[in-house]
Design goal:
By secondary structure, this protein is an all-beta fold. It is built from no helices and 18 strands. It starts with a strand and ends with a strand.
């Protein structure tokens, strides 16, 4: 059973569920018990199709959801207890709760003539915590000088407050140009919006 990493998810939101398959390769039916354990278990939940047992040669699935309750790195494990060898079997679960909700995570500007400015594309940032949150906004990456940003954030958001970042693409050369809009300093670690466009 593979380990599962949900990466960054805003506090109060839920990641897309992940599925783990369990198969009984033995010659007899196995009684099983499945649960979540570990320091961060309150941020992870599971449902499964296994019931109380898995027949010989049969399989079932465990669906895991990550809904971070706190900011920072969180970990837990799915434990499957059975009468077979190697019990209990575990699947490590990891994820990070972030203070900021950033949407979208990618911006594609399409094709823009060299030296001309693209239409505005927007990134929305929301502070999902109960405390004010400071952060820094920069553009980095291979072609960072081909992208510019302006924003209404003032690098600080009150609880529940939302601001917008306006991003434009001004290609300096032909071909594919890439960079990233980086948000650093907020709880849960840095976040990035991938930027791409084509100069013609």
């Amino acid at each position: 059973m593979a380990n599962v990493n949900f990466y960054q998810v805003p506090v109060g939101s839920s990641a897309a569920p992940a599925t783990v398959m369990v198969q009984n390769r033995g010659k007899s039916t196995l009684a099983v018990s499945i649960g979540v354990s570990g320091a961060g278990k309150s941020s992870f939940s599971q449902t499964n199709t296994c019931g109380g047992s898995i027949g010989s040669g049969q399989s079932c699935t465990i669906t895991v959801t990550f809904s971070p309750k706190t900011i920072g790195s969180l970990g837990a494990a799915i434990s499957l207890v059975d009468a077979g060898g190697g019990s209990p079997q575990t699947v490590s679960l990891t994820g990070t709760g972030t203070a900021l909700r950033v949407s979208p995570k990618t911006l594609n500007f399409g094709t823009v003539p060299v030296g001309q400015i693209s239409p505005d594309l927007l990134v929305s940032i929301t502070n999902v915590t109960v405390l004010g949150e400071g952060f820094n906004i920069t553009i980095g990456g291979a072609n960072s000088t081909d992208f510019i940003e302006t924003n209404s954030c003032n690098e600080f958001l009150q609880p529940g407050q939302t601001c917008s970042i306006v991003v434009n693409f001004i290609p300096t050369r032909t071909g594919t140009r890439t960079a990233s809009l980086n948000l650093t300093g907020a709880g849960g670690g840095p976040q990035a919006v991938q930027l791409a466009g084509v100069g013609k």
